[in-house]
Amino acid sequence: MDALLQKPYSRRVLIMGGLLGLGAVTGCAPLVVGGVATGLFVAIDRRTSGTQLEDEAIEVKSASRLREELNDRGHINVTSFNRQVLLTGEVPSEQDRQRAQAAVAGVENVRSIVNELAVMGSSSLSQRSNDTVVTGRVKAAMVDARDLQSRAFKVVTERNIVYLMGLVTQREADRATQVARNTQGVARVVRVLEMISEAELQRLQPPPANNNRSSSPSDSSGG
Predict the structure, then answer these.
(1) Measured between alpha carbons, how far is 77 from 109 in angstroms, rounded to an integer?
(2) From CA 11, how far away is CA 196, in angstroms rounded?
(3) Which residue from 130, 15, 144, 151 is spatially nearest to 84, judged by alpha carbons?
């Protein structure tokens, strides 16, 4: 069941699968910045440019800390969106899971952590390749859905579980979830979405392109 958490600036974080605040802990190891099977269309991003840079820095710094903390134990993906960090992958023990989140919690600008690390053996290369294929299918299905702005979503796939991240409305969240669930190869959909109102969405939309052309002498010629 989705959990709704009130945020200081009135937006809601919608998570199906578990949101752990900075007090909780996660595990990671040989990790991947941005997620092994992550898809993000960056042509239109609802985050500010400053936040996008912060997310990139969070991923790099988290990866470094996790390597220091866990060395080569396990397989971890780090994905940051709007300063919320999603940890996916596998670690050998619950202790490693906790140590991983503790390491990421200390990274500058991280405001919350979603710990989806599984305590189990590392996934195979074939599984990771399959996850990349599934991510591509979900992204393509979102593009085909004319009633969705596919570029508003970041898609991460781990062991056929699809995670959706983004700044979206309830309408967009429900539609994207439906699209992902109906995509071949998807076992489950976990929504790690920050909810905004329709009014907020309108304010975040880029201004329409100015297609007006100034008339040239030939255009205005009556002959």
Answers:
(1) 18
(2) 6
(3) 15
Task: Kindly give, in sequence order, each residue whose CB lies less than 8 Å from that of residue 85, ignoring residues fewer than 6 positions away.
Answer: 58, 62, 78, 79, 104, 107, 110, 112, 113, 114
The pair of structure tokens assigned to 5 is 């958490």
CA distances (Å), origin 68, targets 104, 150, 206, 207: 11, 36, 41, 44
- Lowest-pLDDT range, 68-72, 129-133, 204-208? 204-208
Q: Is 102 left (phi over 0), alpha (psi -120 to 50) or beta?
A: alpha
126-185 pLDDT tens trace: 999 999 999 999 999 999 999 999 999 999 999 999 999 999 999 999 999 999 999 999
The DSSP code sequence of 179-209 is HHHTSTT--EEEEEEEE--HHHHHHHSPPPP
Close Cβ partners of 203 (under 8 Å, ≥ 6 residues apart): none
Burial of 146 (0-12, 13-18, 19+ CB in 10 A): exposed
Query: Is the Cβ–Cβ distance between 122 and 14 less than 8 Å?
Result: no
The answer for 218, left when phi > 0, alpha when psi is -120 to 50, beta otherwise, is: alpha
199: burial class by Cβ within 10 Å (0-12, 13-18, 19+)?
A: exposed
> Mean pLDDT over all residues of the chain?
83
